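Input (structure):
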């Protein structure tokens, strides 16, 4: 099979779909890998690494799209739409429920589109988890940065110093990103509290994260905490739904000016009334004296780590898709079938079909 790795063209997207070491493994299985020249440079993987692995470097973006299997990071952009063709498999983050135009293009193209974000394993989303881990850890780094006076913050050092109390971090949601945020916060010496609604999850956190406090998530508890919080982190998720709005504008006024709010959940609409998407180019804005950081693709900033973390989890699926036909790959890799969003001009992901009120056709293996 010919596997194509194009350079990402989305603004400030520095990740690449496949590591040179993974390309080497696939070549050992008898596959041909074509990589667009410069595809991995921003993530720290120069062309020479791919060449050493045995991949073929190609100058033309369009040429790479001739491959049987396209492995990417982000969804195709309009200039790439004409390059998608029948008989091809596309494996990438797609988020089709929020993109009607791309859904139409994929249906018309006759391509098989497999979305990272809907592949499942044991009721979890294994290809989303590493990005949540990165966003969670990053939230404390960026939050601590913007708490500094020259960056608009109130001048609190999260870890404190001997004789001075540490900063207070409150994390909304104790799932993958929330736990990683709390781990970073306590690692820095900050005082961290996770607010959750899932009591079983809080029991687990209580046993495994003895330096982090847990508190049942309610408006009353939040109102009590907000006047004392230095860094507030939004890490909630209700699967398949928009993020719950836990912080109203009035509640935000309870926080001290110069405090920082990092809303990781912004890709699902954000968990505050005042949240709106920002980019790495212009990541923060002020509302009610509180600095809001609401970047929708946080892991793109740490492209080297994020590319490794992504390939670690995507590789077994890529290998199965390369070595076998779609049905057999789905039989061998449980949960891959749930990733198939578009097949033969039909929508095979119920959530996407419902979002666009289009017909749904089940894909079983
Ligand atoms: N901005 C980015 O770049 C970026 C990167 C990765 C993930 N994300 C997003 O971050 C969000 C969180 O992802 P995750 O993987 O950590 O999700 P997760 O499912 O692992 O965790 C979410 C947690 O929120 C809890 N929760 C639900 N409602 C709550 C409430 N009212 N109060 C408190 N807790 C509540 C759930 O019980 C769950 O434990 C998602 O929207 C995800 O898409 C954003």
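Output (sequence):
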């Amino acid at each position: 099979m010919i596997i194509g790795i194009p350079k990402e063209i989305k603004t400030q997207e520095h990740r690449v779909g496949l590591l040179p070491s993974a390309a080497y493994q696939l070549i050992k299985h008898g596959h041909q890998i074509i990589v667009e020249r410069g595809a991995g440079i921003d993530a720290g993987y120069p062309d020479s690494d791919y060449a050493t692995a045995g991949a073929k470097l190609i100058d033309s973006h369009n040429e790479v799209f001739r491959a049987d299997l396209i492995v990417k990071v982000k969804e195709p952009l309009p200039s790439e739409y004409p390059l998608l063709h029948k008989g091809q498999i596309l494996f990438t983050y797609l988020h089709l429920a929020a993109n009607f135009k791309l859904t139409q293009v994929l249906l018309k193209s006759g391509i098989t589109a497999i979305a990272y974000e809907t592949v499942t394993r044991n009721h979890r989303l294994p290809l989303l988890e590493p990005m949540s881990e990165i966003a969670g850890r990053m939230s404390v780094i960026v939050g601590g940065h913007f708490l500094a006076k020259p960056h608009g913050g109130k001048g609190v050092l999260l870890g404190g110093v001997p004789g001075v109390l540490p900063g207070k971090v409150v994390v909304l949601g104790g799932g993958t990103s929330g736990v990683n945020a709390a781990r970073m916060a306590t690692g820095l010496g900050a005082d961290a509290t996770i607010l959750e609604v899932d009591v079983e999850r809080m029991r687990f956190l209580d046993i495994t994260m003895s330096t982090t406090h847990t508190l049942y998530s309610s408006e009353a508890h939040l109102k009590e905490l907000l006047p004392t919080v230095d860094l507030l982190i939004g890490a909630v998720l209700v699967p398949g739904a928009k993020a719950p709005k836990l912080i109203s504008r009035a509640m935000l006024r309870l926080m001290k000016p110069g405090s920082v709010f990092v809303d990781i959940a912004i890709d699902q609409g954000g968990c505050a009334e005042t949240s709106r998407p920002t980019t790495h180019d212009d990541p923060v804005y002020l509302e009610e004296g509180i600095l809001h950081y609401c970047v929708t693709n946080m892991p793109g900033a740490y492209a080297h780590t994020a590319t490794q973390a992504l390939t670690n989890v995507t590789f077994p699926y890529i290998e199965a898709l390369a070595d076998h036909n779609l049905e057999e790959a789905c039989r061998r890799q449980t949960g891959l079938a749930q990733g198939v969003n578009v097949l033969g001009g039909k929508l095979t992901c119920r959530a996407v079909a419902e979002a666009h009120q289009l017909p749904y056709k089940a894909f079983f293996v």
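Notes: The mean pLDDT is 96. Residues 303-323 form the longest helix (21 residues).
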